Structures are given as structure tokens and as C-alpha cells.
Recover the amino acids of this structure.
């Protein structure tokens, strides 16, 4: 059995093949069927899904923004469709995904704990352009990001709340499971330095685990690592641990579930795992199956995610107003850009909006990047669906929009790397990973500590999709004058010229 067929697996079609396009198209259609049957039919009729998924993603986002009931129904039906299709495959055959994850006969994992030896960091500091920003300097930068439209006002307020309440950073009472422990955008390092207990899950890669163990030793926290049971002696060195640490979330999902179910205290299950293409969908499904099965076992599991900025979002009215104001204030540039609009370039942001069931105009920021593909959108969208359904059922869910960031997965795509390099010409700021992951870790702390955070299910929201707009740092995509996709190619050309200069 190949790696693509083992563990969390896409469905097999009638022709014996696993079509990720057919699966994605069917799931999106199913998500819409109970809210807009006609739209579901149109989605099913989409021929080339890789090129045709953009409009269905916008249509589905618009439908969810029209009423709270629609947002919850779309999310629940989308998740149901995924679980009806995905399975778990091993040498014993194929089972439903949840049955596979709950397998109690899987060989158990052992545990090693790495204790930090440093004092806890007691104040929030953020690395930014070669400096570390503390207190007043960080507050000034938060104000700049908000004024320049890089982040929403609620983002500035959320990070400022952490600055105002430094006691929140004492995470000695907090346990977080980090799926994708080595992810560039993950919070692991910050959580450890603030004293948290972190259960780390990532692939068995010795170099990765050496780096994580070294970070833990230099922190105030406690890193808990899965290892094969019986693989280590009584006093293993850090190199010994790194050589055997890790678990494959796709194929060892039952072992990971059993390992996490034994955590003695309440914990946050955070999914930061990433992979290219269809594997990203499988990883997201594995993480979701863990969330479902663990929450069914125990009532003390909260959820955490990062939302990609390159999706479609219902945005606050202030974002629409700023974008439209910038569009009208283009000056002489409008004359130069007018001929190119025939080629769908330099299109205005928010040239179409929707009206919700209360008569409120809702702008939809369409920031999908076609190069990332429909599998990427499906993987990230199912996380949003789970966030809505879980929060609706009373679970605390931290899901924050992270800014465009120069991660390895982005810059290895030359077209995206060039577009990021030229994005500044359109009011977009692209962040370094160290800046983004520190800010996102601070937002996670705020979500866990602040009872008025939108993460708390008792905080009333106009629509569940408003969870994604709260404290969003989108890098300026929501407030630029232009529909982001309509200037992506121009940004890439400018970026290539600037990189050669």
C-alpha cells in the first residue's frame, strides 16, 4: 500500500481513481445544497474544477454571510460531506475515518518530557525588521498597522490587551497541543517561553526535533514529545530523543488520539500542520478527526487554528469604506489603469457586495490566489467550518487571520514570491515568519484569557463568520483599493524587477 493510500485517505471513485478535484467539487456542492440547491447544481456542473473553483468559493462565502443559520448549515453540511467521503486505510482495509481514528488496537506511543531551564518571559516583544518591539514601540507599530490598513482595529486592540495584561503571559497553567510543531507559523516557541506545557506532534525528523528540543531547553516551558514505546533507555540524551521522536499524523492518527486522550488536564488542540497539494487536505482531515473524537471523549478540549489571508472573507464596513476611498483617490493613475480593466486588471475591491437577512451590506474580500489551488482552499475552509460548528455548540475556538508571510512554502513558488516582493506597491505588507508567529501566539493568549474575545461562545456575534474578521491582520488585502487577484500579476512583474535591481 502506497503512502497516498495509507491512513487518512481520499475516496476512491467509480473508475478506481482518487480524484481530489471530484471530491472537492462534490463537498462544496453538498455544503450548499441545504441553503441554495440551484447553486449546488451549478457547482456540480463545474467542468475544470482547478480553474473553476473560484466562483463557487465566493458564492458559498456570500451565502454564509447572508444569515447566521446559513453559515452554520453550510459548515455542518460541508463537514458531513467530508466525513461521508474520507476514510482510514491500513492493512486491515478501509473504515470510516472516525472508526479508524478510534482504533484501540493501535500500538501505543511513549512519552518524553523536556523541561525548560530559563526564566519565563514576562512581557510581550515582537521581532520586526531587525528590531524587537516592546511596550510603547510595539503600541506605536500597532497603530501604524491599523492606520495604514494593514490590520483591523480589533487586531491592534487585541494585541494591546496582552500588553495591558502581562499576567496573561504566565502560561504555567495552560496546555496546548501543537499539531505541526515545526511549522514556521506555529506558536510553539512563544508558548514555551511564556511557560506553557506543549504537546508537540510532527513527523519523525531528527533535525526538526533537535531544533524543537533545543528551543524547549532554553525556555520556561515543558515540551512533551511522542516516541515509540520502549525505544529509549532510562536517561536518554537530547540527541537520543530527537532520533526517535515524532509521529505521522496521517498514518498514526489512532496512536496520536490515544496519546492525547491521556493528557490529564484541559488543553487546546491547535492545528498548524501544512503540506503541499492534496496532502494538506488529508492533514486537515486528520486534525479534524482528532478534534471530533477527543471532544466526544472529554469536555475540556478547546480548538485553535490560523486562517489564511488568501481566502474569501466577510469584512467589517470600515474595510470596505477605506478600500473604496482609496479607489476614488487614485488620481492620475485611474487614467493609466482604465484600459487594463478590460483584461480584468486593476479591478476595484468590493465591486459587489451582499445584503444579509437584517439588511446590512456585507463586503466580501476575495483574496484567493489561484496558484495555491482548490485543495488548499478546501483544507483551510474545512477548518473554518469546524470553527463555526464547534463554537455554535459551546466550544472555545481561537481562529485568527494571519498576514501574508514569507514562509518557505510560499517563497519556493517563484510566482508567489515575486508577487509578495511587489505587493508593497499596492498597500500590502508581507511579514517575516518570526513577526507573524509571535503576533499570532499573542492573539491565541488573548483568546484564551480575555472573556470578551470573539473566541468565546458566549460572545454574541452578528453572524458566526464574523469570528474571522475579529482581530484580523490581513496584511492590507482587505483595505487595498484593488481586488487582490486583479493586481497579482502586476505585483509579480514589479517584484521580479525589484529583485533584480
Amino acid at each position: 500500500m502506497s503512502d497516498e493510500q495509507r491512513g487518512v485517505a481520499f475516496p476512491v471513485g467509480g473508475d478506481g481513481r482518487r480524484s481530489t478535484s471530484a471530491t472537492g467539487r462534490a463537498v462544496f456542492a453538498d455544503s450548499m445544497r441545504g441553503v441554495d440547491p440551484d447553486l449546488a447544481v451549478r457547482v456540480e456542473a463545474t467542468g475544470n474544477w482547478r480553474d473553476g473553483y473560484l466562483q463557487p468559493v465566493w458564492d458559498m462565502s456570500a451565502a454564509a454571510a447572508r444569515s447566521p443559520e446559513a453559515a452554520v448549515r453550510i459548515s455542518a453540511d460541508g463537514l458531513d460531506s467530508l466525513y461521508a467521503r474520507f476514510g482510514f486505510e491500513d492493512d486491515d482495509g478501509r473504515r470510516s475515518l472516525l472508526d479508524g481514528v478510534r482504533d484501540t488496537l493501535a500500538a501505543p506511543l511513549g512519552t518524553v518530557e523536556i523541561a525548560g531551564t530559563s526564566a519565563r518571559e514576562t512581557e510581550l516583544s515582537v521581532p520586526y525588521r531587525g528590531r524587537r518591539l516592546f511596550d510603547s514601540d510595539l503600541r506605536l507599530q500597532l497603530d501604524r498597522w491599523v492606520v495604514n490598513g494593514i490590520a483591523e482595529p480589533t487586531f491592534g486592540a487585541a494585541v494591546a490587551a496582552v500588553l495591558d495584561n502581562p499576567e496573561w503571559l504566565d502560561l504555567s497553567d495552560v496546555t496546548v497541543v501543537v499539531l505541526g510543531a515545526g511549522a514556521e507559523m506555529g506558536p510553539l516557541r512563544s508558548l514555551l517561553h511564556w511557560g506553557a506545557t506543549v504537546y508537540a506532534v510532527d513527523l519523525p525528523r531528527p533535525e526538526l526535533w533537535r531544533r524543537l528540543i533545543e528551543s524547549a531547553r532554553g525556555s520556561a516551558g515543558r515540551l512533551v514529545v511522542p516516541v515509540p514505546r520502549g525505544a529509549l533507555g532510562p536517561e536518554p540524551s537530547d540527541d537520543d530523543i530527537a532520533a526517535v521522536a515524532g509521529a505521522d499524523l496521517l498514518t498514526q492518527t489512532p496512536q496520536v488520539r490515544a496519546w492525547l486522550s491521556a493528557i490529564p488536564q484541559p488543553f487546546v488542540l491547535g492545528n498548524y500542520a501544512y503540506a503541499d497539494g492534496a496532502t494538506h487536505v488529508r492533514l486537515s482531515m486528520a486534525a479534524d478527526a482528532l478534534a471530533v473524537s477527543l471532544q466526544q471523549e472529554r469536555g475540556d478540549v478547546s480548538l485553535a487554528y490560523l486562517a489564511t489571508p488568501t481566502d474569501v472573507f466577510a469584512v467589517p464596513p470600515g474595510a470596505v469604506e477605506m478600500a473604496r476611498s482609496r479607489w476614488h483617490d487614485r488620481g492620475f493613475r485611474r487614467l493609466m489603469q482604465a484600459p487594463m480593466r478590460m483584461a480584468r486588471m486593476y479591478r476595484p475591491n468590493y465591486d459587489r457586495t451582499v445584503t444579509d437577512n437584517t439588511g446590512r451590506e456585507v463586503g466580501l474580500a476575495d483574496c484567493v490566489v489561484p496558484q495555491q489551488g482548490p485543495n488548499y482552499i478546501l483544507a483551510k475552509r474545512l477548518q473554518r467550518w469546524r470553527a463555526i460548528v464547534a463554537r455554535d455548540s459551546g466550544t472555545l475556538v481561537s481562529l485568527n487571520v494571519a498576514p501574508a508571510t514569507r514562509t518557505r512554502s510560499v517563497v519556493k513558488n517563484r510566482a508567489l514570491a515575486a508577487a509578495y516582493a511587489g505587493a508593497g506597491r499596492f498597500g500590502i505588507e508581507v511579514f517575516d515568519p518570526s513577526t507573524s508567529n509571535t503576533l499570532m501566539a499573542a492573539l491565541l493568549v488573548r483568546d484564551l484569557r480575555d472573556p470578551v474575545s470573539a473566541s468565546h461562545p458566549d460572545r454574541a456575534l452578528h453572524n458566526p463568520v464574523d469570528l474571522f474578521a475579529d482581530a484580523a491582520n490581513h496584511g492590507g488585502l482587505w483595505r487595498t483599493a484593488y481586488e487582490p487577484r486583479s493586481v497579482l500579476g502586476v505585483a509579480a512583474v514589479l517584484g521580479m524587477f525589484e529583485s533584480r535591481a
In short: The chain has 20 helices and 15 strands. The longest strand covers residues 109-115. The chain has a mean pLDDT of 93. The CA atoms of residues 172 and 195 lie 5 Å apart.
